[in-house]
Design goal:
Layout lengths: L1 E3 L8 E8 L3 H12 L4 E4 L8 H4 L4 E5 L23 E2 L10 H4 L7 H4 L3 H8 L9 E2 L7 E5 L1 E2 L6 H11 L3 E5 L2 E7 L6 E7 L5 E11 L3 H14 L18 E11 L16 E5 L1 H7 L4 E6 L4 H7 L5 H6 E11 L8 E8 L5 E7 L3 H20 L3 E5 L1 H5 L13 H5 L29 E3 L14 H21 L1
Parallel strand pairs: 1-9, 2-3, 2-12, 3-9, 4-18, 12-20
Antiparallel strand pairs: 5-8, 6-7, 7-14, 10-11, 11-12, 13-16, 13-19, 14-15, 15-16, 17-18
Helix pairs in contact: 1-6, 1-14, 5-14
Bound molecules: flavin-adenine dinucleotide.
The site of flavin-adenine dinucleotide (FAD) has 40 residues, from α1, β5, β10, α13 and α14.
Length: 483
Amino acid sequence: MIIDVAKGSPGPVTADVCVMGGGVAGITVALRLATKGYRVALIEAGPAAPSTASQEFYKGENVGTENLRVDETRLRALGGSSNHWGGWCRELDAYDFNRTDLSGRGWPISSSDLAPYLDQAAAILGVSSATGADLPLASSDENLQTIQMYFAVPPTRFGERYGAALSATPNVGVFLNAAVTSAERDADTGRIAAVTARSLAGGSLTCRARFFVLAFGTVENIRTLLLWNRLNGGLISPSDDLGRYYMQHLHQALGEFATIDGATPLPPSNSPGNPTVFLASTEKVLREKGLGAFRLYSAEINCDALVDSLRGVVSGAFCSAVTGGGRLLATCEQRPNRDSRISLAAVDDAFGQSRVRLDWEIDTGDAHTLLEAGLEFGRYLIRSGLGRLRINPDVLAGGEPLRGWTALPSAPGAAGHQLGGARMSREPSDGVTDSNCRLWATGNLYIAGGAVFRTSGHANPTLTITQLALRLSDELDRRLMTG
Ligand SMILES: Cc1cc2nc3c(=O)[nH]c(=O)nc-3n(C[C@H](O)[C@H](O)[C@H](O)COP(=O)(O)OP(=O)(O)OC[C@H]3O[C@@H](n4cnc5c(N)ncnc54)[C@H](O)[C@@H]3O)c2cc1C
């Protein structure tokens, strides 16, 4: 059943689980719990398809490192940001969960906790296979390896793909054009008792449930918790970490390379699905050098100007042997940074609620990751006799290496990987949620989505977000069964 709250108020709603946000994570949780027989209310702020009026609510402030606007990287409609995602998928590596050098105590879960959900998550996202061997790379000094990426082709749009199933499932109520704006906390138990959602057209609803799942995407999840803290005396999440350690993947053109004698060390990989093999960092180089993980790929270029500029530094024989080359692109892990932060702006939206302020901060450790990613590839080219790399001067200088990155054709995908702000932890003093994505301060409020990531690896995040959503659904199933 799908109800448009813009057309009128539906009256009080009760459910076993109230899932807030109808994007990748929210739809995954809602359908999973519905198949287990629970009554689910799925409350979505936007309409069935993206609209200018709905996007207006996603406007906010960008400060800090050059970034794409917050209303351009997210979509506020059924299906959420899956309406413009690229379909690139890879699970996190096992060591990503234990980068204690980057994130203190590491994740409170390991890759084996998510492994049972890999195939189901891949199927939900429309990826036919998500397992394949990562292989060593000859002449790489064990610092680079080949890795597999997987693709949803075409990228699954969750509203289109799962709208009919949501509508046909009798124990799911979907409420569109219903922006959740407030939560009522029971002072005796500390639990969330109800949430209220509103439509600009005037309709509203109040939903009471045993459990609540916040699935608004990273930035909006944090904004909402900050707003609810304001309403509830800071008690929804008293953690000082709320909003902090916000991460994006670092997306950068590292330089240009020329290759000789027909070598193709890095085939152009702009188009999803072709190829599926990339070069990436090994655990060894990350631990030895304290780097964020990185993945390398390339875009085609005309090499004439590059070869001309190389003439002074390489032999004429090399120049005449050049047969190709490319622009070296990298997707790198940002090191978790406490100063990188989501907070509330001084400007309100049409519901009178503070808009979001995104202060994305990178530091010298991140500049070091970008530089080393380029140098490792350059060393590999020389050692294996394949070619030469000219590193982008901004990356080499390390000052503002991300300058100009938002103009890269493939940049928006990277800015869309919004992670952290409510990181998982072993103890309340070290994060915002526990290992089951439950807010430490509440008994029944959970986060679905990338906000709980403690580190980001280099992998595109949506496969992991979906694995986490399935695992969260199983946790809710256990709790609902045991009362
Ligand atoms: C251009 C681009 C390309 C991308 N490509 C890739 C890729 O190739 N691979 C990859 O892994 N990831 C990619 N991503 C990231 C991917 O889109 C996200 O990881 C994913 O959509 C996150 O899912 P989510 O459910 O957490 O959030 P979303 O999908 O954003 O869903 C959040 C939902 O909550 C709703 N909502 C918000 N506020 C409220 C409210 N107050 N009340 C009710 N509902 C609300 C929204 O309308 C939305 O439906 C890309 C992102 C962008 C921007």
